[in-house]
Amino acid sequence: MNPDLNADLKELDATLTTIEKVVDVDELSDRIRELEAQAADPSLWDDPDHAQQVTSALSQAQAKKKKIDSLRGRLDDLSVMYELAEEEGDPDAVEMADAERAELRADIESLEVTTMLSGPYDEREAVINIRSGAGGVDAADWAEMLMRMYLRWADKHGHKVEVYDTSYAEEAGIKSATFVVHGEYMYGTLSVEQGAHRLVRISPFDNQGRRQTSFAEVEVLPVVEETDHIDIPESDLRIDVYRSSGPGGQSVNTTDSAVRLTHVPTGIVVTCQNEKSQHQNKASAMRVLQAKLLEKKRQEERAELDALGAGGNASWGNQMRSYVLHPYQMVKDLRTEYEVNNPQSVLDGDLDGFIEAGIRWRMAQQSEGE
Known about the structure:
The structure is a single chain. About 50% of the residues lie in helices and about 20% in strands. The chain contains 9 helices and 11 strands. It has an 8-stranded mixed β-sheet. A 3-stranded antiparallel β-sheet has the order 6-7-8, covered by helices on one side. β7 (about 260-265) and β8 (about 270) form a beta hairpin. The longest helix has about 40 residues, at about 50-90. Keywords: Coiled coil, Cytoplasm, Methylation, Protein biosynthesis.
């Protein structure tokens, strides 16, 4: 086997071995056996919420173990593929092995990125808030384009999305939207998307066809769990109910089921109108409010550490990514320098390159701050 090829296979093996150690495959196997025993207990479904947590955790653990085992098997098979191709002197077989090696490298590197998600909330589901910024109607349209981008990304990866609230702008687009992306490590994965997103294009709303720059803000929060103990006294809440409405003010509900929660001490406002009942909307709004208060608490703690010199630079700046549709075609992340020349594919949900580069960048920033 040629030395360069042999070195590449050894590098892939070393990366995968590191992943197996970080994940701790033996401990993962023990965890699966423990969850399987719980799932087999007939009394498990006496508590449906707990049962769902157990079955979900089991499914995720099994999927992770299966993925690692599959990559290890493919890497072992790849060496055999090259040996057979070399013995037979078959260039087509070598070409097939090269294609598999490139695909395997991409899959191993993708899994390597997920092992970098070790923050206290990284494994949680994500609450995403999108708000239109400067740019008028173009900014509202841009906010809706961003929402579609994240929904398309989630759909491509098989993650269920639950929309809590959408506030439509008068002419086009949205003022804001709040939705949850379900799935393990969604917060850790999508948190690198937080910040101001800038769009440059010929405005479809300008009669003179002038170029317009518009902004939208993306906020990513971890879904709050019962163990977080975010206590919100009723006296700290102002609760308003009203009728849900869709684009153009069209009534989508004939009862006052939409809920607006105002946390008086902080001024944080959360709305939810996408559920059928006032009770469901209030529960969803409370989850988002708790997530916002948890994030506020984390930021305050981080600021205290930074003031003591114990933390790295946690601020990514305001504008984190630029999407240019005119006069040239490019999407560029201003933190990682990662860029692509096909904005449409990105807007259609092809975000993996940006997300992986963001996670690696964040790890490097954290290492520098230590």
